[in-house]
Amino acid sequence: MRIAQVAPLYERVPPHLYGGTERIVSYLSEELVRQGHEVTLFASGDSLTEGRLVAPCERSLRLDPQCKNDLIPHLLQLNHLQRTAAASFDVVHFHTELLHFPFAPELKVPHVTTLHGRLDLPDLVPLFAEFRELPLVSISNSQRNPLPKNDWQGTVYHGLPLDLYNAATSPGTYLAFLGRISPEKRLDRAIEIAKRARMKLKVAAKIDAADRHYFENTIRPLLDDPLVEFLGEMGEEDKGQFLGNARALIFPIDWVEPFGLVMIEAMACGTPTIAFRRGSVPEIIESGVTGFVVDNIEQAVTAVARIPSIDRARCRQVFESRFSAQRMAADYLTIYGRLIDKERRSRPHVIKKRKQLIASDAETAATPLQSKPESPEPVTETLNPGGNENAENRKIS
After folding, report:
1. Do 205 and 180 contact (CB within 8 A), yes or no?
2. What DSSP state is assigned to residue 318?
3. Alpha helix positions (H), 39-186
4. Residue 337 pLDDT
5. Tell me: the pLDDT tens digits for 326-338?
6. CB–CB of 332/92 below 8 Å?
7. Assign residue 279 a region: left if phi > 0, alpha if psi is -120 to 50, beta otherwise?
8. Closest to 325 (Cα-Cα) out of 40, 95, 24
9. pTM over 0.90, yes/no
10. Given strand 52-55, what is the order of strands in its sheet?
11. In this predicted structure, what is the pLDDT of residue 377?
């Protein structure tokens, strides 16, 4: 199957540090390649893939000081995709939240959108009503509850490569908080839980510019406690050891969490999670098996004392059966196949029309996709925003 995976451009795929959406796009893309599918990844130019990489910008926008308008690279990406999709892909899979919504209905190929963010905001209601027929995928059943009338193709839980983390068999000596410091993530709750449980808390977390004021005024004063150790933002290479050596992950959220990737990362390490009952949490954590689902700080403190009752080997087994990248890819392939079959049934002339479109697009596409070379080196195409669109201005590496 020829599959386009369209990622946001703010972070590399996979990201150097924090970036759940880009990490999942990477795991899915590489698993599809491993299974023999032809995958084209639309992402920033510093992204890594065994498939074909098409890049409208040289590096991720968050790390590019010269980027003053992050909309422009995304529009270049979508324009190139729209002009070449029919000639190049059997299905297009968007991970770009809302930006592509006006483009998607005009695509000449089946497409689907995985929504990675929260959907409970009132401003989203008129937009999703306008684009009610767009095929969508949720990452938890809870996530889609505010928008029940849209065209949901299914819920696909995130998955990780089985060899990404090793399970630790013995419990660690500290509690862990991993992710982002923001009001809805409630690091202040995690600190209070650790203090009441009289257990050390290690914090590995990113601070976005938008949350800097919150960090300085609410969180920084709490970090002076001797039980709290702040490690800053953590990369992928250190995450397994950090989670595996923890007694438990604390996930004290105060918002409608769409998924919560860190919960299955901890599970892959054999580490149980103590999580507040919001959003996706009851779908991911089986209380008493892979951790505890709680409703308040008091219950969380009690759960810390009950952590020894959790079988860490069982945590890993649940991860392998429910949250592998292989299972995630299989779920998406089922959806891709269903969308392709639906198009063929509803439009009997689609094969003839597709051939006409392929011929037309091959002639008019300003930056046609290059065939993957025989060598194992991945292909990277950087789209040229400067207007000169001849072959000399495309970088292939």
Report:
1. yes
2. H
3. 71-88, 124-130, 141-144
4. 97
5. 999 999 999 999 9
6. no
7. left
8. 24
9. no
10. 151-155, 135-138, 111-114, 91-94, 2-6, 38-42, 52-55, 379-382, 395-396
11. 53
Note whether 21 and 8 are within 8 A (CB). Answer: yes
Look at residue 278 and tell me whether its pLDDT is greater than 60: yes
- What secondary structure does DSSP assign to 274-302, as a single string? EEES-TTHHHH--BTTTEEEESSHHHHHH
**Rounded mean pLDDT of the chain?**
88
For residues 94-112, average pLDDT: 93
Q: Which two tokens stand for residue 54?
A: 């098409």
Closest C-alpha among 332, 330, 325, 3 to residue 158? 325
Question: Is the Cα torsion angle 147, 151, 157, 160 positive or negative in sign?
Answer: negative
Which residues make Cβ contacts (< 8 Å) with residue 155, sequence separation at least 6?
A: 137, 138, 139, 140, 141, 143, 144
14 preceded by a cis bond (ω within 30 of 0): yes
Residue with tokens 């908080």, as numbered in its chain: 177
Residue 343 above 90 pLDDT?
Answer: no
List Cα–Cα distances, 106 to 89, 237, 245, 350, 353, in angstroms: 15, 41, 50, 15, 14
In whole angstroms, how far apart are CA 124 and each of 107, 127, 130, 146, 254?
23, 5, 10, 9, 20
DSSP assignments along 162-214, one per residue:
TTS-PPPSS--SEEEEEEE-STTT-HHHHHHHHHHHT--EEEEEE--GGGHHH
Q: Which of 30, 61, 27, 66 is nearest to 43 (CA)?
A: 61
Measured in Å, how far apart are the chain's first and last C-alpha atoms?
24
Express each pLDDT in 176-221 by its tens digit.
Answer: 999 999 999 999 999 999 999 999 999 999 898 899 999 999 999 9
- Cβ atoms of 267 and 315 closer than 8 Å: yes
In this predicted structure, which of 13-17, 34-38, 215-219, 274-278 has the lowest mean pLDDT?
Answer: 13-17
